[in-house]
Amino acid sequence: MEAGKGLCIMVLRRQILVRVLPFALFILLLALRDPLGSWLGPDFDVRWVYPIKVALVLALVVYFLRDYTELRELPADSRWLWLWAPLVGVAVFVLWINLDWGWLNLASEDGFVYDPRAADGRIDWTLAAIRLTGSALLVPVMEELFWRSFLMRWIDRHDLMSLAPALVSVKAIVISSIVFGFEHTLWFAGILAGLAYAWLYRAKRQPLAADRRTRHHEWYPGCLGDPDRSLAILVSRILVQDENCLGFLVKLSS
């Protein structure tokens, strides 16, 4: 009996660990960006901390990949995958790039801005490609595994894998979406995005798709009919948004 109980505890801990650890490592490396820059000396380009962060987090996600059973479960109705998820993703993208004014934006003017340009003003395409790839492909997986697959279900039941996504409570959706929103400087857009992703996850029982669709459209901002804003959106929405986590954690600790 005791052996069986111990095995259950180990399984439960692993279920939580594999969904929390990549996100926790991402936040930790974000917090250590400036100290690492100081420690490595003035000649080190602090922007290269992001590729290091992406590589380490990707290694964790790949290592735990077999544990993410929710990523292999497809909805019975394919319209959720090819119709509703893209529509939700586009809607969130439109909200995200427009709800950035006044009190809806908590960004600090003197905060760190990831600028992929070289000293002569030309874009360093290696840095830009790594940033875009991490933001559009890795971060959505990591965030959805933490916010929706782990936290939202854990609020309702600590044995989270025993809770079907369709049974997630309104309380869990609201709490996780609010915290998710304040992880970002665009907090109101973040809350709306969290609610949309939670609804999609609950309705079709799978995280990630809409978040990934949102990031996919962020790769091509000119598709909204204003190609002159493409570079500005790429820099301000994609290249900067991941840094918002640190500001949120600082606010919590103060």
Q: Can you describe what's shown?
A:
With 254 residues, the chain is an all-alpha fold. It has one domain (2-253). Helix content is 65%, strand content 0%. Helix 5 packs antiparallel against helix 8 and helix 6 runs antiparallel to helix 7 (187-204). It starts with a helix and ends with a helix.
Brief account:
The chain is 65% helix and 0% strand. The chain is mostly helical. The longest helix has 32 residues, at 125-156.
Principal-axis shape: globular
Give the biggest beta sheet: none
Low-pLDDT stretches: 216-254
Fraction in beta strands: under 5%
Distance between the termini: 45 Å
Order of helices and strands: HHHHHHHHHH
Query: Could you report the average pLDDT, rounded to the nearest whole number?
Result: 77
Count of folded domains: 1
Pairing-aware structural class of the strands and helices?
A: mainly alpha
Share of helix among residues?
55-70%
Topology, number of strands: 0
How many helical stretches?
10
Radius of gyration: 19 Å
Brief descriptors of the model:
65% helix; mainly alpha; 254 residues; 10 helices; globular
Give the helix/strand layout:
Blueprint: H1 2-31, H2 33-40, H3 49-63, H4 79-98, H5 125-156, H6 170-182, H7 187-204, H8 209-219, H9 230-238, H10 244-253
Helix pairs in contact: 1-3, 1-5, 3-5, 4-7, 4-8, 5-6, 5-8, 6-7
